[in-house]
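Lay summary

Proteins are chains of building blocks that fold into shapes. Our project writes down both the chain and a compact code for its shape. Here are two examples, one after the other.
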Amino acid sequence: MTTRRDFLKASTLASTLLFVPSFLHRLDAHALPSLRDAAGRRLVVVQLSGGNDGLNTVIPFEDDLYFKARPTLGIRPQSGIHTLDKGLGFNPAMRRLKGLYDQGHVAVLNSVGYPNPDRSHFRSMDIWQSGSGADESLTTGWLGRYLDSNCAPCTLPYNGVEVDDTLSLAMKGLQRKGLALKSPEKFHQLTQGRLLAKIGREQPGSSISEVDYLYKTLAETASSADYLYQKSKVYKSAVTYPNSEFGKSLKTTAELINSGVESRVFYVSLSGFDTHVRQQEQQARLLGDLSEGLGSFAEDLQKAGNFDDTLVLVFSEFGRRVSQNASNGTDHGTANNVLLLGGGLRRQGILNNAPNLQNLDAGDLKYQLDFRSVYATVLHDWLQADDQAILGSSFERLKGLV
């Protein structure tokens, strides 16, 4: 038998992969309804870390106040702006997203935010990932609570997958959370060590103890790793993705989806958007990566017939100040745009008014739409979940969106 000391060494690995809930909860808690079918729909969340400049992403190129606030940083139509509607256009680097927009697969929400916004990267990201208000602090994420509410007792930790080394707060529930992995192959290799494999074969005792629960966690981890690895062999993408970490993450996500992995939520990130200095080139590179990656992702899913059942939500923790700074960059701001992408969108295009650059809050955009209204819409109308229970309050949903 494995010794307790050896086991606790291995348990460090488990704690990074699966959530260990409070031991006040019994392992044999009363079962709740299993994960709802929701017509086979899945959600892919794309996080733009660092605070993407929304005004140079969805550009108000017909507004003179935009160029007045950004005399050198403002992007002019002759630079290749991809014209949308309502005096707005995509950044010149977003060619493939413009193509998807023209096909009716993209929706743009302007000035999304929340009351009393926070300009700290860490705090604002916590607010977006947890779905909390600015005046409250939650230790669980909105997607983790979705997993809790729909599949509390089930033994399918891969119902939520984050393609990364670590798991975001967004994916952590009270009783369940998703899996963090860079690739199914590497994840499987990680669980094939002699000690971990031996623990996975052993049965925990009947008592409800910390060690017993960790044995169960490790067994679930090994089982999930094997499932994802075997399923991932079903489909290997032939689509060309950007040769970047973000491109690789999207390719892995597409391969898991097209292989038939039974996951409802996927999470990927693209970082580097904290553009205080010389923003234009840096942001253009990142937005090009975003656009090319999502274009390839959509192509991959369309070829496999999975695009109509997939919704992509793109967000950043905050936008940037309206005026450029002295370093030809932008500083931390507030409200920002949110993009939705998918073959099942019922409303497409620009869904609300362009940012109001005349009515600012101390140089920052005022939010038009609470981000939790977007979450409520996705949870209730797309995933068919109880949005009020998950978000802890009622938020007006966007009618007829999905």
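And here is the second example, written the same way.
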Amino acid sequence: MDIVLGLQWGDEGKGKFIDLISENYDITARFNGGSNAGHSIERNGRRITLKMVPSGIFMKEVQNVIGTGTVLDPVSFKKEILNLKAFDETVRPEENIIISRKAHLVLPTHKLLDIFMEEDPDYTTIGTTKNGIAQAYSNKILRQNVRMGDIYSPDFKSKVQHIVERDYKMLAEGNMILPSLEEINNEFFEAVDFLKTFNCTETEIYLNKALSEGKKILAEGSQAAMLDIDHGTYPYVTSSSTTASGASSGLGISPKKIEEIYGIAKVYCTRVGNGVFPTELFNEQGDEIRTKGREFGSNTGRPRRTGWLDLPALKYAVMINGVTQLVLTKSDVLSGLKSVAICTHYELEDGTLQTVSGVLPENAKPVLKWMQGWNADFANMKSSSELPSELKEFLSFLEMELKVPVTYLSIGAGREQMLKMK
């Protein structure tokens, strides 16, 4: 099994890369997260955002697994499938998607609870997508939730209604303006009926059997390493394990069976929502990168915060994931700048220096290394030999610092605009 995961705060271009290489695999498998993720893919000049559906869906011979470590919102999933079919009528999701029986469901009131907690001053606000993901995961841990396999149980409807009515009552007592309980229940159960048209099984057995038969699996992570619930910049993180170890637990595959670990990072940094961001740019330079890079949330449309590449955080992400190959994206966005910067270390208030960090100290001063910018016409570039010398120097510096080879470089938004470096 190979793994693709983000090394920063998400939005690094995982979907595009998976779409590109998935033809080399028999199965692509999503191991974490829910509809809070957004993998944007461009095909034939058109753009689509996948949320729950693995990014190998456009390859007809590839099976796509939604694994046990995910949380599935039936309503959102139904909308995504209908949108996918409208985007490409040749796609056959009912035939090419397999869902874990053990994946937990996002219930109708989970989104409402998310909104309530984000807006109530008694709770910590972190800027979530308000998709109910944290509520589903927290109820999973509390052993108060229902799973995908439960939809076939005769008492499924009564179980869900009990949970939803309990949540609804609590929210009403908190003076929240609520939609009709009947309306959200009807929408949910209609979406559950739609879910029943998909193959639902113990995906752990399916995946391990596939490996024993010599088939190749590509594990797909959502969000990114610095948003990991344990190892990320807590509390400004997601609710699941986003690292390579999360692929093992989220899919039920032994770590012994992991081979290549592709880590994806932009040549600069972006972040959505709240949290420490040492290299953030608050000037016209940041605005220019945001506009040129189309740095707006795939799911929410929120403007992403932008900043220079953060090497201490990137070293940390490479270390905890055991990355074997680096995939760098958005090199075209910085093209035309006279100089570009990389944060090589942080200078703390007491004068000490940090060169590797997963904590990201609040008042640290980012120490920047300035490098010569590059200017290239990437539109028709076909080979890494055509890259400008300044960009090659930038890549060599990163390889030297991270001790991992850059094997792919994205030079544009299109799926064909990915150069193989080694």
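What can we say about the second shape? DSSP finds twelve helices and 19 strands in the chain.
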